[in-house]
Design a protein that fits this description.
Layout lengths: L1 H27 L6 H8 L6 E5 L14 E6 L2 H7 L6 E4 L14 E5 L8 H13 L13 E7 L17 E9 L8 E9 L5 H8 L2 E9 L2 E8 L4
Parallel strand pairs: 1-2, 1-4, 2-3, 4-5
Antiparallel strand pairs: 5-9, 6-7, 8-9
Helix pairs in contact: 1-3
């Protein structure tokens, strides 16, 4: 309990408050869907209803006009931006306390969110919360109700950051916000917490959260996995 409380307080200071302050600037840099996320959403059956947990500015809400997404984020300022993407819904909600009924939705996406949780237990709980809303997929069912989860990778030796095996997995990543007009020439730096996932760690966390990985890979300094609830007998 003490670890969870400390983790929550740390994330409020080094994740939630940061994104609320940089929301407008952050949103201006996030406009192009990542290819695998776009593919995942585009291949969903027409009429599917799902969630985007940690939706940011809502850039994925417009990918597929034939599905409906309930988007949520911990930052009220980002949710305000995401609400421009009608007819989808955008709400303020915490990943660890989602307001959706269990086993009620067709799909979920969590893109670059889970790595902001500051302990292993909280990251597993965050994944479990995403999986919990999915409809069960019995072994006899050909189609599986699924979630796509993305996290930053430790293995980034070819990126500008240069992280790789042997580096610390828990890092603070700066976001520099420059002045917004000629009179404001200063800049301000905000440090955001990230847990960098090593190869195989995301799959292990999904299994610990009660899921089963059906597809996974690496894309542009991220590990990703498509997962389902552990099948019913």
């Amino acid at each position: 309990m003490a670890e969870s409380t400390a983790g929550e307080a740390f994330e409020i200071s080094h994740v939630h408050e940061v994104y609320d302050q940089i929301a407008s600037h952050f949103s201006s840099t996030r406009y192009k869907p990542w290819p695998i996320v776009e593919r995942f959403l585009s291949e969903l059956p027409d009429g599917s209803i799902g969630i985007d947990v940690g939706c940011g500015n809502g850039k994925y809400l417009t990918v597929n006009p034939n599905i409906f997404i309930i988007a949520s984020d911990r930052s009220p300022n980002l949710v305000h931006i995401a609400r421009r993407h009608q007819p989808h819904s955008s709400i303020v909600a915490d990943n660890l306390n989602l307001p959706h009924l269990p086993s009620s939705l067709d799909f979920a996406i969590s893109i670059a969110v889970v790595h902001h949780l500051s302990t292993a237990a909280r990251r597993i709980d965050a994944i479990a919360a995403v999986l919990d809303v999915l409809k069960p997929s019995p072994n006899s069912t050909a189609y599986k109700y699924r979630a796509l989860i993305y996290v930053w990778a430790l293995e980034q030796k070819h990126s500008r950051r240069g992280w790789d095996e042997g580096n610390d997995q828990d890092v603070m990543v700066p976001w520099v916000m420059k002045g917004t007009n000629e009179k404001d020439n200063g800049s301000k730096t905000f440090d955001r917490y990230y847990h960098l996932y090593r190869r195989g760690e995301l799959q292990n966390d999904i299994e610990a959260a009660g899921g089963e990985v059906i597809e996974s890979g690496y894309e542009k300094d991220n590990w990703w996995a498509i997962a389902i609830k552990r099948p019913l007998d």
